[in-house]
Amino acid sequence: MDFVKAHACGNDFLILEEAVAQRRHAELAKKLCSRNTSIGADGIEFLERRAGGEFFLRLFNADGSEAELSGNGTRCVAAWLAQSEGLTQVTLGTHAGKRACTVIEASDPVYTIESEMGVPRVMARAIDLPGVGIVEGAMVNVGNPHFVLFVHTDDFSAHGMSWQELGAKISTDPMFAHGTNVEFVKVLSKSEIEFRIFERGCGPTTSSGTGTCASSSAAMVLRGVDRELTAIAQGGAQRTVWPSNQEVMRLTGPAEIICAGKVAGL
Ligand SMILES: N[C@@H](CCC[C@H](N)C(=O)O)C(=O)O
């Protein structure tokens, strides 16, 4: 079975052709994303080639759960199609709708790509978390679900817990029927935020495309920061542009093709 591995600011993905999955998506994700016993990744993008040259992506997290989309994963696939097929503009279907990607700089194997990420929906919300109490934040939908908290601590801790510990609790709390991604956001200035990510289905990651959009849109709507932002995660910075609440957000960041190979025994 052929695979490609790519990453965007350390958020890493395997890319497999949908045709090889044969309904084993969840099983393959759990197996191949394992970092000690297989290739290792935060998720798998299954790339389906449809009639008329259209593409469709199904994203499975490392725990085998299926998500609506990934921002970084989508960009990794766009980078792969740029490298392997010379496509500099590509629209990729996802369960959250189509995402148009444009290569704005190619320095193989690193591609800088701008993606249209849909219209974020931001709703301020306080949740009552068992054993923790009331947690103020925002539910944000950018195609997939996010809960964004604003923090002021140096280490992104909140409510007396590390962000990893609190992120795990929020991500799996039953009030989120389908689970949620969680971001801990610090506003550094009108034009810059820094954040940490606890991802539904894989835990802490060094970057997230949808997490970048969720954190940025929450900061724009609820903290009045600029509509063009630099959003810094542990794996690097991405840029977001959101002219108004009704418009599509654009996300720009890198994606790097790491390797391609064959999985033994499959
Ligand atoms: N890292 C991704 C998001 C992947 C999906 C997420 N874990 C979910 O379950 O919604 C990104 O870059 O957006």
TrEMBL record:
Alphabetical UniProt keywords: Amino-acid biosynthesis, Cytoplasm, Isomerase, Lysine biosynthesis
Origin superkingdom: Bacteria
Molecular function as annotated in GO: diaminopimelate epimerase activity
Enzyme class, spelled out: isomerase
Annotated GO CC locations: cytosol
Main location: cytoplasm
SUPFAM superfamilies: Diaminopimelate epimerase-like
Name of this protein: Diaminopimelate epimerase
UniProt keyword Endoplasmic reticulum, yes or no: no
UniProt subcellular location: Cytoplasm
EC identifiers of the protein: 5.1.1.7
Record field: catalytic activity: (2S,6S)-2,6-diaminopimelate = meso-2,6-diaminopimelate
Site (Could be important to modulate the pK values of the two catalytic cysteine residues): 146, 199
InterPro entries: DAP_epimerase_DapF
